[in-house]
Amino acid sequence: MYDYMKGQVTAITPEYVVVEVYGIGYQIVAGNPFAFSASEGKEAKVYLYQHVREDNITLFGFQTTEERYLFKKLLGVSGIGPKSALAITAAGDATQLINAIEIEDDVYLTKFPSVGKKTARQIILDLKGKLGDVVTSEIPHFTPQKEITDGLNPQLEEAILALQALGYSERELKKIIPKLTEEIMTSDEYIKLALKLMTN
């Protein structure tokens, strides 16, 4: 799995950009390839998502980890494929998109390509309450913000990291941390208890 690529942007087309790294040109599909125009002929850092199908391997590129995180979340929604997810992340402001999901504004969501009312409702159902941290933190390595782990023991810190890697938000974790600090446990035990608390 690739995390990012740093190289010279040698071509920009309506569908993809080409980034040359050590003499190899990588074709990277982007929602808005022309967003990389300022980097044409220069070195750029492109965050990647590798999508593998039986007959094709595609690299999707993003300017920020925030865009990539939203893309991956949207991919998990039933009825949303890579092209639709890319269109949504490229065309929509992240804050507006998250707000629309939180207030269940399916009219806003149906403005995106290939998103009908049924798919919009599915997006809301699957993602409401799960994107609150996207705008304020860049998430890809799931490093918790300082206030979450400040004063916690190393085992609990490791557990919080693992839970964030599973997709639990800062808001969800903040609710259960006070209960986790009542006892000293191994990281594995903390995780099991946390999962139990969040599913009850």
Automatic annotation (TrEMBL):
Source superkingdom: Bacteria
Subcellular location per the Swiss-Prot or TrEMBL entry: Cytoplasm
Keyword Nucleotide-binding: yes
Annotated segments matching region Domain III: 155-200
GO molecular function: ATP binding; four-way junction DNA binding; four-way junction helicase activity
Main localization category: cytoplasm
Helix-hairpin-helix DNA-binding motif class domain sequence ranges: 72-91, 107-126
Summary of the function given for this chain in its UniProt record: The RuvA-RuvB-RuvC complex processes Holliday junction (HJ) DNA during genetic recombination and DNA repair, while the RuvA-RuvB complex plays an important role in the rescue of blocked DNA replication forks via replication fork reversal (RFR). RuvA specifically binds to HJ cruciform DNA, conferring on it an open structure. The RuvB hexamer acts as an ATP-dependent pump, pulling dsDNA into and through the RuvAB complex. HJ branch migration allows RuvC to scan DNA until it finds its consensus sequence, where it cleaves and resolves the cruciform DNA.
Domain notes: Has three domains with a flexible linker between the domains II and III and assumes an 'L' shape. Domain III is highly mobile and contacts RuvB.
Subunit composition and interactions: Homotetramer. Forms an RuvA(8)-RuvB(12)-Holliday junction (HJ) complex. HJ DNA is sandwiched between 2 RuvA tetramers; dsDNA enters through RuvA and exits via RuvB. An RuvB hexamer assembles on each DNA strand where it exits the tetramer. Each RuvB hexamer is contacted by two RuvA subunits (via domain III) on 2 adjacent RuvB subunits; this complex drives branch migration. In the full resolvosome a probable DNA-RuvA(4)-RuvB(12)-RuvC(2) complex forms which resolves the HJ.
Name of protein: Holliday junction branch migration complex subunit RuvA
Organism of this sequence: Listeria fleischmannii 1991
